[in-house]
Structure formats: structure tokens, C-alpha cells
Amino acid sequence: MIQLVSSHSSNAESLILEHIQTYAPSLALASLSLLDSPKNPPSTLCNEHLQAWWTLSVTHPIPDSLYESVYWSLLHLIQNTPPALLLGDGFLRHKLEHYAQYLLHKTPLLLRAQSIRP
Fold first, then answer.
1. Which residue of 12, 39, 64, 96 has the smallest Cβ count within 10 Å?
2. Residue 7: what pLDDT?
3. CA–CA dist 77, 103 (Å, integer)
4. Nearest Cα to 42, choosing from 52, 51, 32?
5. Helix H or strand E encompassing 5
6. DSSP letter (8 states) at residue 4
7. Could you tell me the end-to-end alpha-carbon distance of the chain, in angstroms, rounded to an integer?
8. Can you give the C-alpha Rg of the chain in angstroms?
9. What is the distance, to the nearest Å, from the Cα of residue 96 to the centroid of all Cα atoms in its chain?
10. d(CA 63, CA 68)
11. Are 42 and 87 within 8 A, CB to CB?
């Protein structure tokens, strides 16, 4: 069932926050495992996250927080970059690892994470 959410209501904000808090840790762990095992990219996980997001029908494209912005940046990075490139490019590898560690609350954000919602 699709639920229409106005991005400016308090109910929408709580649904968005709940979605990000629910899905960010699993995305971060899957991203870190990608660094160890590039043969299993987390594309299915990304699709599940996006499918759950689209049921919210959020129309506002700007993330509400830095944490949400990092979540969307990481999702975009692992979904749109071939695993071989993520492993071969030191900067992309560092970015992936840093974003994942930030989403797991293990490090402060040192890199810029500018993103939009899908």
C-alpha cells in the first residue's frame, strides 16, 4: 500500500526519520562487507531500501539531516559504482568506508556528503 506523505508534516518527518534509522545501519554493514567480498554487491539490499522508501511517497528532495544525506550518498555510491572500481580507487574506497563508519556512529563525518532523495 502506498502512503502519501507531505514532506512538511510532523508525521512525514517521523516516517522519514524512522526509515533512515532502520535502514542506515544495514546499508553501512553491507557496504563494509563489499570491501571484503566484492563478488556480492549489495544491489538487492539497495533495491529493498528504495522500494521501502517509495512506499512513503516523499516529494521533498532535500534530506532533513546530515545523517540522512550520508545515507543517500552511500546508497548512490554503492548502487552506481561497479565493485571493481570501488576496490581499485582509493578515494572511493575511503569514501565508502568513511560514510559507512559514520552511519554506524563510529566516526565523525570528515568528508562532504551532499545528496538528494530519490
1. 39
2. 46
3. 14
4. 32
5. none
6. -
7. 19
8. 14
9. 11
10. 6
11. no
Contact 51, 2 (CB under 8 A): no
Q: Which phi and psi (to 5°) does residue 51 adopt?
A: -60, -45
Residues in the chain: 118
Q: How confident is the model at residue 20 (pLDDT cuts 50, 70, 90)?
A: very high
Q: Which three cell numbers stand for residue 71?
A: 545515507
Contact 28, 67 (CB under 8 A): no
Ramachandran sector of residue 117 (left: φ over 0; alpha: ψ -120 to 50; beta: rest): beta
Q: Which residues, in sequence order, are CB contacts of 103 under 8 Å at separation 6+?
A: 24, 25, 27, 28, 67, 70, 71, 74
Q: Which pTM value belongs to this model?
A: 0.85
Per DSSP, 58 falls in state B
pLDDT at 24: 95
